[in-house]
Amino acid sequence: MIGSIRKSWQSAFEGHEVSTQAAEGTDDGVTRSCFLRMMAAGALAAGFSGSARAAVPAKASGVPPVTDIDKLYDAWQERMNSGDLEGLVDLYVEDVYYVNPDGVALSGKAAVRTDLAGLLALKPQIVLGNRRHMVYENIALTTNHWRMNFFNADGVKQELTGGGIEVMRKEADGGWRYIIDDASRSAS
Question: Where is the signal peptide (predicted)?
Protein backbone atom coordinates (compact mmCIF):
# COMPACT_ATOMS: atom_id res chain seq x y z
CA MET A 1 0.00 0.00 0.00
CA ILE A 2 2.70 2.51 1.04
CA GLY A 3 4.69 1.59 -2.06
CA SER A 4 1.75 2.28 -4.37
CA ILE A 5 1.16 5.68 -2.73
CA ARG A 6 4.87 6.59 -3.04
CA LYS A 7 4.87 5.50 -6.68
CA SER A 8 1.76 7.61 -7.40
CA TRP A 9 3.32 10.67 -5.75
CA GLN A 10 6.61 10.21 -7.60
CA SER A 11 4.85 9.91 -10.95
CA ALA A 12 2.85 13.06 -10.15
CA PHE A 13 6.09 15.06 -10.00
CA GLU A 14 7.99 13.48 -12.90
CA GLY A 15 9.41 16.20 -15.11
CA HIS A 16 8.38 19.04 -12.76
CA GLU A 17 10.86 21.28 -10.98
CA VAL A 18 10.37 22.87 -7.59
CA SER A 19 10.51 26.67 -7.76
CA THR A 20 13.76 28.49 -6.99
CA GLN A 21 11.92 30.35 -4.22
CA ALA A 22 11.35 27.01 -2.50
CA ALA A 23 15.08 26.28 -2.62
CA GLU A 24 15.69 29.64 -0.91
CA GLY A 25 12.98 28.94 1.68
CA THR A 26 10.70 31.80 0.59
CA ASP A 27 7.95 29.71 -0.97
CA ASP A 28 6.51 26.25 -0.45
CA GLY A 29 7.30 25.53 -4.11
CA VAL A 30 4.03 23.79 -4.86
CA THR A 31 2.15 25.27 -7.78
CA ARG A 32 -1.58 24.75 -8.27
CA SER A 33 -0.89 22.23 -11.02
CA CYS A 34 1.57 20.32 -8.80
CA PHE A 35 -0.94 20.39 -5.95
CA LEU A 36 -3.65 19.00 -8.24
CA ARG A 37 -1.27 16.26 -9.41
CA MET A 38 -0.53 15.39 -5.75
CA MET A 39 -4.24 15.28 -4.94
CA ALA A 40 -4.93 13.10 -7.98
CA ALA A 41 -2.14 10.72 -7.00
CA GLY A 42 -3.50 10.52 -3.48
CA ALA A 43 -7.03 10.02 -4.77
CA LEU A 44 -5.89 7.18 -6.99
CA ALA A 45 -4.11 5.54 -4.08
CA ALA A 46 -7.16 6.06 -1.86
CA GLY A 47 -9.38 4.63 -4.56
CA PHE A 48 -7.35 1.46 -4.72
CA SER A 49 -7.37 1.00 -0.93
CA GLY A 50 -10.97 2.09 -0.55
CA SER A 51 -12.44 -0.14 -3.24
CA ALA A 52 -13.37 -2.88 -0.76
CA ARG A 53 -15.08 -0.35 1.50
CA ALA A 54 -16.97 1.15 -1.45
CA ALA A 55 -18.62 -2.24 -1.98
CA VAL A 56 -20.43 -1.84 1.36
CA PRO A 57 -23.76 -0.11 0.73
CA ALA A 58 -24.19 3.34 2.26
CA LYS A 59 -26.80 3.74 5.01
CA ALA A 60 -30.16 4.77 3.66
CA SER A 61 -30.71 8.41 4.59
CA GLY A 62 -33.94 9.06 2.73
CA VAL A 63 -32.06 11.54 0.52
CA PRO A 64 -31.69 10.32 -3.08
CA PRO A 65 -28.02 9.90 -4.07
CA VAL A 66 -26.54 12.19 -6.72
CA THR A 67 -25.50 9.69 -9.39
CA ASP A 68 -24.43 12.19 -12.07
CA ILE A 69 -21.14 13.83 -11.10
CA ASP A 70 -22.01 16.82 -13.29
CA LYS A 71 -24.97 17.47 -10.95
CA LEU A 72 -23.10 17.12 -7.64
CA TYR A 73 -22.11 20.78 -7.31
CA ASP A 74 -25.67 21.78 -8.31
CA ALA A 75 -27.04 19.57 -5.53
CA TRP A 76 -24.57 20.95 -2.97
CA GLN A 77 -25.36 24.55 -3.95
CA GLU A 78 -29.14 23.96 -3.94
CA ARG A 79 -29.05 22.22 -0.56
CA MET A 80 -26.88 24.96 0.97
CA ASN A 81 -29.10 27.75 -0.40
CA SER A 82 -32.28 26.06 0.84
CA GLY A 83 -30.84 25.31 4.30
CA ASP A 84 -31.11 21.52 3.83
CA LEU A 85 -28.63 20.26 6.44
CA GLU A 86 -29.51 16.56 6.03
CA GLY A 87 -29.20 16.81 2.25
CA LEU A 88 -25.79 18.49 2.53
CA VAL A 89 -24.44 15.99 5.05
CA ASP A 90 -25.60 13.11 2.83
CA LEU A 91 -23.10 14.28 0.21
CA TYR A 92 -20.21 13.21 2.49
CA VAL A 93 -18.86 9.76 3.44
CA GLU A 94 -18.83 8.82 7.14
CA ASP A 95 -15.07 9.34 7.57
CA VAL A 96 -14.76 12.47 5.39
CA TYR A 97 -11.79 14.80 5.83
CA TYR A 98 -13.17 18.35 5.69
CA VAL A 99 -11.43 21.74 5.82
CA ASN A 100 -13.92 24.54 6.32
CA PRO A 101 -13.60 28.02 4.75
CA ASP A 102 -11.75 29.22 7.87
CA GLY A 103 -9.08 26.54 7.34
CA VAL A 104 -10.18 24.38 10.29
CA ALA A 105 -9.67 20.67 9.56
CA LEU A 106 -12.44 18.35 10.70
CA SER A 107 -12.85 14.58 10.51
CA GLY A 108 -16.08 12.68 10.09
CA LYS A 109 -19.66 13.38 9.13
CA ALA A 110 -20.68 14.46 12.65
CA ALA A 111 -18.09 17.27 12.65
CA VAL A 112 -19.18 18.34 9.16
CA ARG A 113 -22.82 18.39 10.33
CA THR A 114 -21.96 20.67 13.27
CA ASP A 115 -19.88 23.01 11.11
CA LEU A 116 -22.49 23.24 8.35
CA ALA A 117 -25.30 23.77 10.89
CA GLY A 118 -23.45 26.85 12.17
CA LEU A 119 -23.01 28.13 8.63
CA LEU A 120 -26.65 27.50 7.70
CA ALA A 121 -27.73 29.60 10.70
CA LEU A 122 -26.45 32.61 8.70
CA LYS A 123 -28.85 31.71 5.84
CA PRO A 124 -26.12 32.02 3.23
CA GLN A 125 -26.58 32.06 -0.51
CA ILE A 126 -23.69 30.50 -2.40
CA VAL A 127 -22.74 30.26 -6.05
CA LEU A 128 -20.23 27.60 -7.09
CA GLY A 129 -18.48 28.56 -10.33
CA ASN A 130 -15.50 27.53 -12.44
CA ARG A 131 -16.33 23.90 -11.73
CA ARG A 132 -13.93 21.27 -13.03
CA HIS A 133 -13.50 17.61 -12.35
CA MET A 134 -11.21 14.81 -13.43
CA VAL A 135 -12.63 11.32 -13.09
CA TYR A 136 -10.76 8.05 -12.83
CA GLU A 137 -13.08 5.06 -12.41
CA ASN A 138 -14.94 5.68 -9.13
CA ILE A 139 -12.74 8.58 -7.90
CA ALA A 140 -12.90 12.24 -8.96
CA LEU A 141 -10.71 15.25 -8.23
CA THR A 142 -12.72 18.45 -8.47
CA THR A 143 -12.15 22.18 -8.11
CA ASN A 144 -14.39 25.23 -7.94
CA HIS A 145 -14.55 28.87 -6.96
CA TRP A 146 -17.34 30.05 -4.72
CA ARG A 147 -19.02 33.29 -3.71
CA MET A 148 -21.20 33.40 -0.59
CA ASN A 149 -23.49 36.20 0.59
CA PHE A 150 -25.12 36.47 4.01
CA PHE A 151 -26.21 39.14 6.50
CA ASN A 152 -24.22 39.63 9.70
CA ALA A 153 -25.78 40.20 13.15
CA ASP A 154 -26.06 43.94 12.39
CA GLY A 155 -28.01 43.26 9.18
CA VAL A 156 -25.11 44.25 6.94
CA LYS A 157 -24.67 42.16 3.80
CA GLN A 158 -21.36 40.30 3.73
CA GLU A 159 -19.67 38.58 0.78
CA LEU A 160 -17.00 35.93 1.04
CA THR A 161 -15.15 34.32 -1.84
CA GLY A 162 -12.95 31.29 -1.95
CA GLY A 163 -12.21 28.08 -3.74
CA GLY A 164 -12.59 24.40 -3.14
CA ILE A 165 -10.62 21.30 -4.00
CA GLU A 166 -12.42 18.04 -3.39
CA VAL A 167 -11.96 14.33 -3.88
CA MET A 168 -15.16 12.36 -4.46
CA ARG A 169 -15.90 8.68 -4.67
CA LYS A 170 -18.80 6.86 -6.29
CA GLU A 171 -20.40 4.73 -3.58
CA ALA A 172 -22.22 1.38 -3.83
CA ASP A 173 -25.61 3.14 -4.09
CA GLY A 174 -24.37 4.90 -7.25
CA GLY A 175 -24.10 8.28 -5.51
CA TRP A 176 -21.02 10.49 -5.63
CA ARG A 177 -19.87 11.66 -2.18
CA TYR A 178 -17.02 13.77 -0.86
CA ILE A 179 -14.17 11.90 0.82
CA ILE A 180 -12.01 15.04 1.05
CA ASP A 181 -13.44 18.56 0.93
CA ASP A 182 -11.14 21.56 1.27
CA ALA A 183 -13.22 24.76 1.05
CA SER A 184 -10.38 26.94 2.36
CA ARG A 185 -8.53 27.51 -0.90
CA SER A 186 -8.02 31.03 -2.23
CA ALA A 187 -10.24 32.05 -5.10
CA SER A 188 -7.41 33.92 -6.82
Answer: none
Question: CB under 8 Å to 11, separation ≥6 — which residues?
Answer: 41
At residue 43, the pLDDT reads: 45
Q: What is the pLDDT of residue 181?
A: 96
Question: What predicted TM-score, i.e. pTM, was given to this entire model?
Answer: 0.68
Q: Could you tell me the sign of the dihedral formed by the alpha carbons of 170, 38, 36, 137, in that order? A: negative
- Domain boundaries along the sequence of the chain: 2-53, 64-185
Decide if domain 64-185 falls under CATH 3.40.50.2300: no
Q: How far is the C-alpha of 139 from the C-alpha of 175, rounded, in Å?
A: 12
